[in-house]
Amino acid sequence: MGKKIMVQSVKLVKDSNRIYDIEKKKITCPADAVRFAQIIFDIESRPNEIFGVFNLNTKNEIIGCSIVFEGTVDSSLVHPRETFRTAILNNASSIICFHNHRATRS
């Protein structure tokens, strides 16, 4: 009797498709990454800490982005598996990770 082997396939499922008012989607410096994270994910007003990834092509243009993990008010735990999953599925040549610290509220 032969041995059973599991055959699996992984597919990228688009959660949403939005159009943003961004004059260029190329990241050339850290300030660009911060600006895009603010425009796309509104990271400054989030009540909890988040960790996200921009997936880039060889020209440093954003080809995909995602929030990898949303944590609590003071922590965000991330596993490398989740960090690289969308990059691999998007065939990204590089990534930029971003993380916020929620605004202090009185």
UniProtKB/TrEMBL annotation:
* GO BP term (any one): proteolysis
Could you tell me which InterPro entries the record lists for this protein? MPN, RadC_JAB, UPF0758
Q: Which Pfam families match?
A: RadC
PANTHER family documented for this protein: DNA REPAIR PROTEIN RADC, UPF0758 PROTEIN YEES-RELATED
Q: What is this protein called?
A: DNA repair protein
Q: Which UniProt keywords apply?
A: Hydrolase, Metal-binding, Metalloprotease, Protease, Zinc
Q: Does the keyword Zinc apply?
A: yes
What is the scientific name of the source organism? Bacillus thuringiensis subsp. darmstadiensis
The GO terms this record gives for MF are:
metal ion binding; metallopeptidase activity
Where the record annotates domain MPN, the positions are 27-106
Membership in a protein family: Belongs to the UPF0758 family.
